[in-house]
Amino acid sequence: MGSTSTLDAEISIAKLVTDGATTANPEVIEWVTEVAELTKPESVVWCDGSQDEWNRITSEMVEAGSLIPLNKDLRPGSFLARSHPGDVARVEDRTFICSENEADAGPTNNWRAPADMKAELMPLFDGSMRGRTMYVVPFSMGPVGGAITQLGIEITDSPYAVLNMRIMTRMGQSALDGITPGSEWVRTVHSVGAPLEFGQDDVAWPCNDVKYITHFPETLEVWSYGSGYGGNALLSKKCFALRIASVMGRREGWLAEHMLLLKLTDTVTDKVYHLSAAFPSACGKTNLAMLQPTIPGWKVETIGDDIAWLRPGKDGRLYAINPEAGFFGVAPGTGEGTNPVAMETLWGNTVFTNVALTDDGDVWWEGKTEEVPGHLIDWQGNDWTPDSGRPSAHPNSRFTVPIQQTPTLADEWFEQDGVPLDAILFGGRRATNVPLVAQSLSWQHGVFVGATISSEKTAAQEGTVGELRRDPFAMLPFCGYNMADYWGHWLEMGETLGENAPKIFQANSFRTGAHGRFLWPGFGDNSRVIDWVIRRVSGEVEGRVSAVGTLPAEGELNLDGIEDVRPELDELFAIDPASWLAECELTEEFFAQFGDRVPAGLRAELAGLRQRLSS
Ligand code: OXD
Ligand code: MN
């Protein structure tokens, strides 16, 4: 009797999957059926990415109290979501790389054996979608059919995740049609872990105290449980486009990077250049992605703000795409003064999460405007006034917005096979040592520079102020395999590219002088740094060689209009051998945790740096 009803239930779940299926690919149907049989949803929806679907899901969520529609005159087509207060950010301590061998995950990742992790996860996913709709979300990272593009499917029980995936990826039927029998694609499963048993009422933001963000690089799978938030739930982003893709890239000879991507046009010669840049969080990455130059002669256009995939093209150069289709940006600190382009981008069609609500049905966050509203509803739904003594928006509150709304979007975002890269920039937030800009002495030296990126801890972070936090290639939480092997892969890419390799630079606009005063104005004036970088690439300027790289020679950095910075130049570019040598000790300690997997080339670079500093 019992086994007959189990069989009946399985048949009806399989029927739920096949009834609405919009593909005939048996591999997809089989996988979706397996996940449905495990998670036991009430219904299954195959998403097509259409406007109708968007309208239907947003209406259902508004009806259910999970989305607040914003004032249609002020912010058309836009919504506010408020998360559970315990589900507001990525959970790095619950993020796991489940490679067969622990050493392949490396010392900077949490590791679990794949079989052990599956054994731990399956009971949690068993019935986790009861009473909910299971959405099947096919998506393309990059233009469908492009040379660098990859495809995936996210199964999720979160309609909030579906809406965000529609903004962040090319989601829908054409992606699904690209997944053909035998082709490679990434399988991702997401459940908020909040089944609705026996018709129980839902809450506005379902999630679970228990969270798992797990990656299976050998089988190209992601399983995420318990969180509805950002990088934990939009599995195309950090999970696929960085952690899984970095492993695919190593296997197949390309790179998945935590980099923004810019198009730069010299308006005098019309010559076009492309630059990608890796920055740890809180180092002005979004502002640089939407840079408004303060010097004439350059048009700067946005291709990407967070992730770039880089692959050698037929001509031997390194080509780049932004695999994403939207921005999932941090709201606080984004304002008319700091990033007018982002503010214009957010005119409508935006999902806001954990920002404050104004009395006229618009959104606000700290830094949006200089004038602070007299009354708001804060991110937790409570009344707020300027003397409440707490921020109105969560510090990690976000906007999700289609990239195509960016006024500075480059046509090259649509480019099927990507753009050729001329320069790669590594940034950090360093009060000391690191000069405003330096070109690496070779590709190998550039990889050493990327591998040793660091930021000084600020008062907002745990640990001692001034202590260095290493964030190699800004990939510390995002590299899906052993970080030392990743450096090795970068070195191999350099060998493949040879003379065609982009030039590598390091930049730091956070150097301070006496009393912690910033020496460089930053923001739009970073166009002056980029101007020098490109003039180095084109061979227009010579630079001067120093122990840590090639610096701008006297007069090469364009300071027109900010002549008051001139007296700071010595300090901005000062290289103090003693403190650099002390930093080399720390680099040696940092490398030591990777044991003999550190490529010999990087050890040679450390030795070379010490020698140059001592001579
Ligand atoms: C992001 C991050 O959200 O890097 O982009 O954490
Ligand atoms: Mn990021």
Explain this structure.
The strands form 7 sheets. Strands 1, 4, 5, 6, 7, 8, 9, 10 and 11 form a 9-stranded mixed beta sheet that branches. The protein has 615 residues and is of the alpha+beta class. It has 3 domains: 2-64 and 92-253, Phosphoenolpyruvate Carboxykinase, domain 1; 256-324 and 412-614, Phosphoenolpyruvate Carboxykinase, domain 3 (Alpha-Beta Complex), CATH 3.90.228.20; 327-405, Phosphoenolpyruvate Carboxykinase, domain 2 (Beta Complex). The protein is built from 17 helices and 32 strands. The structure holds oxalic acid (OXD) and manganese (II) ion. Oxalic acid binds at residues 90, 231, 281, 306.
Can you lay out the helices and strands and say which pair or pack?
Layout (H helix, E strand, L loop, with lengths): L1 H19 L5 H14 L3 E4 L4 H14 L3 E2 L9 E3 L13 E3 L4 H4 L4 E2 L2 H12 L7 E9 L8 E7 L2 H10 L1 E2 L1 H6 L7 E6 L20 E5 L4 E5 L4 H4 L2 H17 L2 E3 L1 E8 L5 E7 L6 H5 L8 E7 L3 E5 L5 E4 L4 E5 L9 H6 L5 E3 L2 E3 L4 E2 L11 E2 L5 E2 L13 E5 L16 E2 L2 E5 L9 E3 L3 H9 L2 E3 L11 E3 L12 H15 L5 E5 L18 H12 L6 E3 L2 E3 L17 H4 L4 H16 L7 H15 L1
Parallel strand pairs: 1-6, 3-19, 4-5, 4-10, 7-9, 9-11, 14-26, 26-30
Antiparallel strand pairs: 2-3, 6-7, 6-8, 10-11, 12-16, 13-14, 13-15, 16-17, 17-25, 18-24, 19-24, 20-21, 20-22, 22-23, 27-30, 28-29, 31-32
Helix pairs in contact: 1-2, 3-6, 12-13, 12-17, 16-17
Manganese (II) ion binds next to loops.
